[in-house]
Amino acid sequence: MEEDYKKGHRALLNSGEENELEVFGYRSQTLRSVLCFLASVLTCGVLLLVFYWRPQWKVWANCIPCPLQEADIVLLRTTDEFQRYMRKKVICLYLSTLKFPINKNIGEPLVSDHHSVINKAVLKPELKLRCIQVQKIRYVWDNLEKQFKKVGLLEDSNSCYDIHHTFGLGLTSEEQEIRRLVCGPNAIEVEIQPIWKLLVKQVLNPFYVFQAFTLTLWLSQGYIEYSVAIIILSILSIILSIYDLRQQSVKLHNLVEDHNKVQVKINVKDKGLQELESHLLVPGDTLILSGKLSLPCDAVLIDGNCVVNEGMLTGESIPVTKTPLPQSENTMPWKSHSLEDYRRHVLFCGTEVIQVKPSGQGPVRAIVLQTGYNTAKGDLVRSILYPRPLNFKLYSDAFKFIVFLACLGVVGFFYALGVYIHHGVPSRDTMTMALLLLTVTVPPVLPAALTTGIVYAQKRLKKKNIFCISPQRINMCGQLNLVCFDKTGTLTEDGLDLWGTVPTADNSFQEGHSFTSGEALPWSPLCAAMASCHSLILLDGTIQGDPLDLKMFEGTAWTMEDCNVDCCTFGMSESHVIIKPGPRASQSPVEVITILLQFPFSSNLQRMSVVTQLAGEDHFQAYMKGAPEMVARFCRSETVPKNFSQKLKNYTTQGFRVIAFAHKTLKMGLLSDVMSLTRDEVESELTFLGLLIMENRLKKETKPVLKELNEAHIRTVMITGDNLQTAITVAKNSGMIPQGSQVILVEANEPEEFAPASVTWQLVKNQENGPRKNEAYINVGNSSVPDGEGRSSYHFAMSGKSYQVLFQHFYTLLPKILVNGTIFARMSPGQKSSLVEEFQKLNYYVGMCGDGANDCGALKMAHAGISLSEQEASVASPFTSKTANIECVPHLIKEGRAALVSSFGVFKYLTMYGIIQFIGTSLLYWQLQLFGNYQYLMQDVAITLMVCLTMSSTHAYPKLAPYRPAGQLLSPPLLLSVILNSGFTCIVQICAFLFVKQQPWYFEIYKYSECFLANQTKFSINMTLERNCTGNATLIPGSILSFESTTLWPICTINCIAIAFIFSKGKPFRKPIYTNYIFSFLLISALSLTVFILFSDFQDIYSGMEFIPTITSWRVSIFMAAVVQFCVAFFVEDVILQNRKLWRLIKKKFGFHSQSHYRNWQRKLAEDSSWPPTNRTEYSGDGKNGFYINLGYESLEQIPKEECELRGQTTEHHFLTRL
């Protein structure tokens, strides 16, 4: 019973998705709420502040747990490593508020869509439903499944038949009203945050609350100047933050504002066409597309074709053709029916419809799939509004350091209490002074100083045409040690040059045509395929589309026209495109080719096909183009040349891009029959036509950049959708695979009926024969990777298909392959994302550089995704380079390293600054004294503030070092740096504090003030000394004037300047310190001013700074002590702590190793004499023993019962069959 209760209390939202949340049910209790209110009043609002910072505590204090079905408050918790909480109120919606009668019969549905959650969410006869709003998405309570479900979208369980027949004629006006109430408006509304709200959020930040407490305390003690300076700094910092947030809010608001004001036409059941504003659209509405339009929702096309610009989503402004969802009779979910290619039917919100092509049976129609923030654009806006927290060691370590400093402050608090109570000081003064020491350790300038480094780096990146929408990731770029590159358009030129064609006839390849000859491509079925099998469109008289398609079409010398009355036959629509021979084309028996039906190219399917009609023919022709291996699979085997694989290899190993073509004649005479064809019917039993060879040249920047990254010991990996052999050749030509390195092909196969899944390793051997040097051929002999150096210089290469098999059936083998995997070809977008994630699991810091089209998922998944796009900010990735080559990658890594080192330097400096002041103040507290206001002011404003704000402006070093900076504050060198410098500071200050008391001229002023005042008439004396008739002085707690403070202040101040210099190390990650002119000037000025004050004998300076004049020899001693401390600290920091060779020796001596997973694997594999495997096959099981199985990939239902039983007996076992 208790388990059922707990189960009802907790559920999952968005199960399995990136934004998965746990949701817990709670019910408000009046007594608890009253008690919390009284506690808030008694604590003067402190409890409310705590509840603001910790919403879960508020829920736990005010409410009691209950089943979600009864909850009026829900507590949500993210399922990631951050475990963040949110509190939401359950809202009730009543359908009885609608202006028309609602059917209250329990058995009858409210909406026609029987899959809709609305029917299961509304309670009858009350007509009530319960919902919550989480991060702009609305969820309603499903009374049948007992969980919250998302609304504002059509359920994925709808089949193609459901979509066509349930929604094809439109919704009734009553159903529209119900859906509007339940789903909310179709609007992506970004509120421009009021300034007062932003101000409250900033001010209630825990750090600013602590700062407010600190400043109140300081002001009460008369530290007016310094407090005012910090208040001004804090106000400026808050104003800048608010301005930045407000600007972002305004920009985002303006970006989406027009989205909500689009006028659209819809079809309403029994009422016909209606025009309305887009915010009134609901899922299920039938949208009529009559021309150019910015799509206000996600919709699935059901009739006619569309050409859209998806630049907003992908970063590529290439027209994409959308085709209608087929009218299938089966009950399979519509996305499953189209497999991975379902996106070709979907019009995404925010994309631009640039051309519509009616089918001839009526206007272009689409069914609204998702509205508001459920859409593609809404999802992108939500990712900006609610960014995923960064799990970066620097930020967690920084928090630990601040906690440590706060703890140090608490120690100081109790120390001060003890000292002041011991001297019998009144309790009020005791508490005040103790609280003052508590506030010394945490520097109030910390947030501004840490942010400054990122701001400087962002500005420098902007000058190099690299734009950033996630500044926090800049520091993370300093840790990158693996960069993945897309090939086409990233490593190689975007445009391809035509090299030649190789047609086939009689099951063999014929003599090819060379485009370099200048002769026109001769007419053949291959020429017809090249002229028609593409996704090009004619827009305003200009042919537009994919660059590869454009180049291919130009090679035929044919022209494109819109279908006109003269050419249109058989009831063809005027929107069909026709192809004609151009003036430069070779003589052709065909005058016109009309493209009737198109199945667009998909990266997942690696092919596209069209159905055409050649003028003068009664029948229709289908053409396919795509990856050669994929096209050959759909062709009749007798039409594919026997030497197909060898011929393909000859070209791909030379780095050529190869595309294959096929065709078949369709045995049907009616256009209506053609228009109802499915992709599977068209793409079967084809005749192989031949190959198109295209030359894909490397960009001139590619080789030097890859060489630079290689010299910096940063791994480079190629993830491409192109052919594997082409990718290997490009990798070798670009230097990604160095000369002399071995390449091992990994080929994995799915399990078959009587055979388990297998993985085969084949060595690629370099041979010097053939038309080009360094051609690669698979060697199936007995070659193996040579011993010695050769064993460490090998690279694995595999296809997306093999990766998928490894992921499913050989998951334990995958890390071994990935630590040396360099080439991943024929990868789908989903596989690219998965691969980046797997690299991250090995503790690599992964960068991804791509053109933003098929790389969106991988760009977002990587620690630093860089999109090569002309737009200043691409939604596809955190970084966007307007320079379309990979030079941006080393620039970003350099700036990231400089920013990271600067952040560490600033943090170390501010930690030491707090400790230096803490030690000095603690020593003075021993005799109930303090530094003077202007003494603090000089240290805090003139030195620390100015230095911190300029320390990070040092530019990045122009050359990448062969190692990364430390990635965490709690690393031994950084910790030792703080500990040793704290030790030096402590020793020097204590020695100075004790030695000054030993000087013959020293006396305790508070015991002999009359004598001192009588003999020092030319200097003004602090008013904290009260004279009395006995000639003695009584010290008021918090007095300033003393030889101790006069001695300690210059030591502390010079120490602050010295560590600022020491912690601003230049090479190898930043330029030398002298190149930072403002910082150098401030350091020199601060040091000069301090020395001037130390050695000057001006009455005004001494009275203003509240010093006591001392003899010159003592001042020289103070200065020498500070210089010696600087020399020791500089030697220890530069020669010992920053000495990589010494640390490597220590690690080797004591057996310390990196705990990164990839390092562990590298060590294990280096000791394994059987690795890497070559020319052998491994199996996932022998049918009786164990299996390589990815538990995270398969569900129990997908695994045979026998395998489930075996999993309990054995974890991993396989047998080897050597070839």
From TrEMBL:
GO terms for molecular function: ATP binding; ATP hydrolysis activity; ATPase-coupled monoatomic cation transmembrane transporter activity; metal ion binding; P-type ion transporter activity; polyamine transmembrane transporter activity. PROSITE patterns: ATPASE_E1_E2. It is an enzyme of class 7 (translocase). Signal peptide: none annotated. GO terms for biological process: intracellular calcium ion homeostasis. It comes from Chrysochloris asiatica. It is found in: Membrane. It catalyses: ATP + H2O = ADP + phosphate + H(+). Residues 265-384 form the P-type ATPase A domain. Belongs to the cation transport ATPase (P-type) (TC 3.A.3) family. Type V subfamily. Its EC number is 7.2.2.-. Gene3D superfamilies: Calcium-transporting ATPase, cytoplasmic domain N (3.40.1110.10), Calcium-transporting ATPase, cytoplasmic transduction domain A (2.70.150.10), Calcium-transporting ATPase, transmembrane domain (1.20.1110.10), HAD superfamily/HAD-like (3.40.50.1000). It is a multi-pass membrane protein. The chain crosses the membrane at residues 31-53, 226-245, 398-421, 433-457, 906-928, 934-953, 974-996, 1047-1064, 1076-1096, 1116-1137. InterPro entries: ATPase_P-typ_cation-transptr_N, ATPase_P-typ_cyto_dom_N, ATPase_P-typ_P_site, ATPase_P-typ_TM_dom_sf, ATPase_P-typ_transduc_dom_A_sf, ATPase_P-type_domA, HAD-like_sf, HAD_sf. Keywords: ATP-binding, Glycoprotein, Magnesium, Membrane, Metal-binding, Nucleotide-binding, Translocase, Transmembrane, Transmembrane helix. GO terms for cellular component: late endosome membrane. Residues 17-142 form the P5B-type ATPase N-terminal domain. This is Cation-transporting ATPase. Residues 168-213 form the Cation-transporting P-type ATPase N-terminal domain.
